[in-house]
Specification:
Number of domains: 1
Low-confidence stretches: none
Mean pLDDT: 93
Number of strands: 0
Shape: flat
Order of helices and strands: HHHH
Largest sheet: none
Radius of gyration: 25 Å
Helix content: 55-70%
């Protein structure tokens, strides 16, 4: 960060940039960002996406779907032995079995991925058609 990189300097030298001026600029930009985020949040709360609820509802749903997809893929990979960290089973060792149905998990993950794409498309369409409120 430019501020921290110029917050201290050695005696007999000058910092490359004025840290105080950078801090003032950062404060102004963060105030502007806060205002923009507030406007976006108000717009999202007021934007009706029909069956998907408000834009805020749709964004929450999309986030949850993405997390669900990640959980399903991770579980399927673990059950399939994909994250065994180079584990090699010798004949003399006990066999390992999947505790979860890998094919079913992958099918569920595919359905969730499709749902994410479809919802994301509706969100993006609304983003193009809705004006930001003041």
């Amino acid at each position: 960060m430019r501020i921290t990189g110029n917050a201290r300097y050695q005696e007999g030298t000058e910092p490359a940039e004025d840290a105080a001026a950078l801090l003032t600029e950062a404060d102004a930009l963060l105030d502007e960002l806060e205002g923009l985020i507030r406007r976006i949040n108000r717009t999202n709360s007021a934007t009706d996406l029909g069956a998907d609820g408000t834009m805020t509802d749709a964004l929450a749903r999309r986030d949850a779907l993405r997390m669900r997809h990640s959980v399903l893929v991770s579980a399927a990979d673990a059950a399939a032995g994909r994250d065994a960290n180079g584990f090699r089973q010798l004949r003399s060792e006990l066999r390992q079995f999947a505790a979860l149905p890998v094919a079913e998990l992958r099918a569920r993950a595919d359905r969730v991925a499709r749902d994410v794409r479809e919802l994301d498309t509706r969100i993006q369409q609304a983003n193009w058609n809705v004006e930001l409120v003041e």
